[in-house]
Design brief:
The protein has 429 residues and is of the alpha/beta class. The protein has 16 helices and 12 strands. Strands 1-7-6-5-4-2-3 form a 7-stranded mixed sheet, with helices on both faces. It has a 5-stranded mixed sheet with strand order 8-9-12-11-10. Helix 5 links the parallel strand 2 (101-105) and strand 3 (126-130). It is globular. The chain folds into 2 domains: 5-286, 3-Layer(aba) Sandwich (Aspartate Aminotransferase, domain 2), CATH 3.40.640.10; 291-425, Aspartate Aminotransferase, domain 1. The longest helix is centred in the C-terminal third of the chain and has 20 residues, at 291-310. The chain has helices spanning 5-11, 38-46, 60-73, 84-93, 110-122, 136-140, 164-173, 234-237, 248-251, 259-272, 278-288, 291-310, 326-335, 351-361, 391-397, 413-425, and strands at 77-81, 101-105, 126-130, 146-152, 178-181, 198-202, 216-220, 315-319, 343-348, 366-367, 377-379, 403-407. It binds pyridoxal-5'-phosphate. Pyridoxal-5'-phosphate (PLP) binds at residues 83-85, 88, 109, 111-112, 152, 156, 181, 183-184, 202, 204, 214, 216, 371.
């Protein structure tokens, strides 16, 4: 099979419907699947035979989405979920239990920060935040109960590219996998090729691309030797009482290097039930068909927006990977050679008040709490997506009071620039 994303986005995981020869992936809108015999039913539940059981755990439409995203990321298998939030939570909870910890980059989406700082802490899982500027900070925060490292490739709103290979290598030396949230940069960077073990996405964003559904996905890289680090990774190497004592690295051996993702499906998804609807899986598959074209257009338009904003006196600072300097510029060149992403941050010279006037004046850009839509979007994070964080936490994640985030869409660039031009004029300098 090819590795070209343009082709994978249309073909991976599917040729035609085995029952009807339909070319478009059918929406298998069913809760359950007929067992041909009691023997087959028992085998399916025992995982000695693979097949459909119940849509909370798997579904043929969702299966194609999982195969397609796994192929795009260069992984071996994937698990689709009802939201990106569920994907972040499952990715961690699949390895860490009460009393364990993970080490996370400070550069996180506000919802992930809350999940880590409050929800997981309430469940007894400690998240230790470190500044990724110094990759060794991950090593310093590690102890014998550290089960994973976690980061975003192109973290919004700082848009500071994460040192994937450096941190992945530190973890691999001691049996700790790097989980990368690649929501902002599908196709631009493949974290698994740089040593990450697991990739997750909010499919809601660029992969889906049309702002019509919420979904998440976890991709297993199949490139991490869990069994070689049995003490470090007990969740995959000790008998699991919730599945008649299965040791996941042993039980899944005949299926390939998929212990991590199988365990997530048959325990976490079984128990917590954050299943994606087959209809949303279909909409995501439609969106993904054009993701390569869209990512190119997002990046080209964002580059033009950066040039435009840097020339304007109303703008005090523009934040975009293309403007990185020093060591950060080297990281951008290494990890984002194909495009620097569609998100652009700006600080208005007039501060928070000017930021609000700017957003209120936008006519083409939508003021919404989303990114990665084909349409252009804008938001003021301090009063919305990051409002539940303390001022110190906001500062740690890169949100200043006057920060405005643009998510540049794929409209004609002249129309995008005209809207920014008139909105800047409305800020009153
Ligand atoms: N990760 C990142 C980087 C995001 O931007 C978001 C949502 O904005 C999420 C995860 C959570 O995804 P969802 O909104 O699909 O739950």
């Amino acid at each position: 099979m090819t590795t070209h994303p343009e082709t994978l986005a249309l073909h991976a995981g599917w040729r035609a419907d085995p029952a009807t020869t339909a070319v478009a992936v059918p929406i298998y809108q069913t809760s359950s699947f007929l067992f041909p015999s009691t023997e087959t039913a028992a085998n399916l539940f025992a995982l000695s035979e693979m097949g459909n059981i119940y849509t909370r755990i798997m579904n043929p439409t969702t299966d194609v989405l999982e195969k397609r995203v796994a192929a795009l990321e260069g992984g071996v298998a994937a698990l689709a979920l009802a939201s990106g939030q569920a994907a972040s939570a499952f990715a961690v909870k699949n390895l860490a239990r009460a009393g364990d910890n993970i080490v996370s980059s400070t550069d996180l989406y506000g919802g992930t920060w809350n999940l880590f700082q409050n929800q997981l802490r309430d469940e007894g899982i400690e998240v230790r935040f470190v500044d990724p500027e110094d990759p060794e900070a991950f090593a310093r925060a590690t102890d014998s109960r550290t089960r994973a490292y976690y980061a975003e490739t192109l973290p919004n709103p700082k848009l500071r590219v994460f040192p994937i290979a450096e941190v992945a290598a530190i973890g691999r030396r001691v049996g700790i996998p790097l989980i990368m949230d690649n929501t902002a940069a599908p196709l631009l960077v493949k974290p698994l090729e740089h040593g990450a073990a697991v990739v997750m996405h909010s499919v809601t964003k660029y992969l889906g691309g049309h702002g019509n559904s919420i979904g998440g996905i976890i991709v297993d890289g199949g490139n991490f030797d869990w069994a070689a680090h049995a003490e470090r990774q007990p969740a995959l190497n000790m008998p699991d009482p919730s599945y008649h004592g299965a040791v996941w690295t042993e039980a899944t051996k005949p299926l390939g290097p998929v212990a991590y993702i199988i365990k997530a499906r048959v325990t976490l998804l079984r128990d917590l039930g954050s299943a994606l609807s087959p209809f949303n899986a279909f909409l995501f598959l439609q969106g993904i068909e054009t993701v390569a074209l869209r990512m190119r257009a997002h990046c080209d338009n964002a580059d033009s927006v950066v040039r435009f904003l840097t020339s304007r006196p109303e703008v005090a600072r523009v934040i975009h990977p293309s403007l990185a300097t020093g060591q950060e510029a080297a990281r951008v060149a290494k990890y984002l050679p194909a495009g620097k992403g569609g998100m652009v941050g700006l600080e208005l010279a007039g501060g928070a008040a000017a930021g609000k006037r700017f957003i209120d004046a936008l006519k083409l850009f939508y003021h919404v709490a989303n990114v990665g839509d084909a349409r252009s979007l804008a938001i003021h994070p301090a009063s919305t997506t990051h409002a539940q964080l303390s001022p110190a936490e906001q500062a740690a994640t890169g949100v200043s009071p006057g920060y405005v985030r643009l998510c540049v869409g794929i409209e004609h660039i002249d129309d995008i620039l005209a809207d920014l031009d008139q909105a800047l004029a409305a800020t009153g300098g």
